[in-house]
Amino acid sequence: MPIDKEQFLKQFVKQALDERISLFLGAGGSCDAGYPNWADLFAPFARDLGTPINESTDYYRLAQYYSNSFGPGELRKRINERINRNNFESQLLEELIDIGFTNVWTTNFDNAIELNYQKRDILTNKVFRDSDFSNIDINKRINIFKMNGDVTNLEGIVATQSDYEKYADTHRIMLMFFKRELISSTFLFIGYSFTDHLVLDCLSEITRYLGYSATYHYTIMKNNPKDPYFKHFVEDIEQRYHIRVLLVDDYKEIQIILNELDKKGNVTVASLVELTGASESSIRRDLVELDHQGFLKRVHGGATLIPKVTQTIEDPLGKRQLLNADEKKKIAKYAAGMIEANDVVYLDAGSSTLELIEYLDQKEAHYITNGLMQAQQLTLKGFHVVCLGGEVRNITGACVGANTMKSLSRYHFSKGFFGTNGIDLMNGFTTPDSEEAAIKELAMERCQMSYVLSDHSKFNKVYHVTFGQINDAVIITDHCEKEIKEQATVVEVRD
Asked: In terms of CB atoms within 10 Å, which of 184, 227, 269, 282 comes out highest?
């Protein structure tokens, strides 16, 4: 029997907390990015052969017939023409990436999923040959397993019945890993029709051997009440393959549900007690153990899933100044009002602290900065300013390096104002550059009071270098979520 939305959210989140979660992306997932589904991909082949396409079409056999008639080279050429493109913008795929899957599996040839990860500056390993398995788990990248091959290697794609029949020999390690992951992880199947015998055979084998102890997996699919066989189809995949099915009336609902699922990554002890029926003490022990194993991060009253998204690239200073400009002005004006006579103030390089200078009127304070633009603006306004020397980063105008660190270590500050690229419960304040992070960290240590200026867009973002934890500074922002407020000192600047 299909589950409802609330059951799906509760059950899948519980599985995500207990063990790894993996995504299986079917052709429907790539359609949202503008790629053809299987019917559209093979429609020209069917027309050339003079055969119709319907719901019962076996695409491996159709491709085989085309290959027999026109040659395997022509088949692969035509496939390449349809899918070798860079149409990758997809809200659905972005929502899926935000959930933080351990691995991604797909039978698609196209490059939609990896291009969306690339757009988010998330490193991936693409695995489509047995020889590629030597690269998995390198540098904690997301592994994308392309079971039927990849558009970059058309000679190796699995498209025909003959390719399918040889699969056990040509992709032995791929099959072994897939079966292992079906046992050890919980899968979410998206855009998948459950008609591919390759995947169904693996699911069937696992459930035959493990019976009721086999892991349950999940799928979201569009309801089809007009098809008299659809009800029986759903019952079949639930019973024989251990797939829990959430039916939706419109594909747009899938994105809404995925967004909710992402938000459910934060859970409380109370909700887990209600969800599992276990005692509060038992839940707390489990959270401690899962925290130690690195599956989640314990927070006050519950836990949060470890963020999988790590960003590495930052925008130039000029571009960042234009982002959320109104919010930055409000934050900067509030922060400027906190500076008093005789304060020794550290101003970090960055767009937020540069905006602060616009509202400064306290000329009896002393200002030290590692930002060239900050030093220039302070000087023009007639303030007493010291600019720390060192190597200058072009993208931010920040002085960094050993000389900057040496100069900085001489000072003690009453107040320090810092910018950040990301704020996250587990990872704290983060930035992409290790040298700039080192300057921020040292400066923060030498401040009696530290303030981080951040608009709402910086929250729940993680860059790969941490320079402080969220309770190391007061966060001045326009708005942030309740979970942050519970763990840090936050000032929300209102109109």
From this structure: 269
